[in-house]
Amino acid sequence: MKKIKELFRLIHSRFDLKKFLLLFSLFIAPLIFYIFLSLGIYKHQNLPILTDKVIDLKTISPSTTATFSEKLTVICFLGSDIKNAKASLFNLNQTIYKRYYSKPYFQMVAILPQGLENEYNETIQELSAFTDISKWHFIYASPQNINLLFNSFQTPYLLNENLYSENAYIVDMELRLRGRKDDEDTKGGKLYGYNMKSVAILKNKMKDDIDIIYYQLKKSAEKQARRKREI
């Protein structure tokens, strides 16, 4: 009789354990994950503004139809060394552009030196062979105007002698440079741009920061929708 009771107790304890594991996997674990995710989003919900007065693209190229206004822009300065620029361009295209080009407001801008239209045409054609480049804008400008635009970002960096920057930059709809103020890998914590030569940085930092901006846009749209319903 004692052995039978012990057997029932063992079966009952195992049943409770299975029930607990089932409840944990169905309800408790997702709740913990949601709380963890929410805390992470809250911590990074406001991607810092590093510069609030970036000049518009029309200032350096009056004939362009591209503008920073009402667009979320990833911009790069490719310079006159096309071999070096091509590697950066294709990295950025594969890692960032292909992920976001179908999203609203998104665009990519490449700033190129005037006089290299024919030289860059082959690279652009190669890019278009396997990518819908409708959200890419290739803008040619004088060295003076390229520096004028870059300097308006107010970063601690300089373009090199070929007018190239190894970084890509995020400019929001209100012509503000966005980035980080607490980047653990950057001296002083301020991350103004994202190294195009590093797929890891583009995937783990630039992608995350663009996602934060889209999260902000979504929340802003939801607030506006609620206000309209309340009127």
Descriptive notes:
There is one protein chain. By secondary structure, the chain is α/β, with parallel strands linked by helices. It folds into two domains: 43 residues; 173 residues, Glutaredoxin, CATH 3.40.30. 52% of the residues lie in helices and 16% in strands. It has six helices and seven strands. Strands 1, 2, 3, 4, 5, 6 and 7 form a seven-stranded mixed beta sheet that branches. The longest helix has 42 residues. The radius of gyration is 25 Å and the shape is globular. The termini are far apart.
Structure in a nutshell:
With 231 residues, this protein is of the alpha/beta class.
Write the layout of secondary structure elements.
Elements: H1 2-43, E1 49-51, H2 57-60, E2 72-78, H3 82-100, E3 106-113, H4 117-128, E4 136-141, H5 143-152, E5 164-171, E6 177-178, E7 194-195, H6 199-230
Parallel strand pairs: 2-3, 3-4
Antiparallel strand pairs: 1-6, 2-5, 5-6, 5-7
Describe this protein with a few key phrases.
231 residues, alpha/beta, Glutaredoxin, 2 domains, seven-stranded mixed sheet, 6 helices
Strand tally: 7
Please tell me the total number of domains: 2
Which superfamily, in CATH terms, is the homologous superfamily of the largest domain? Glutaredoxin
Mean pLDDT: 87
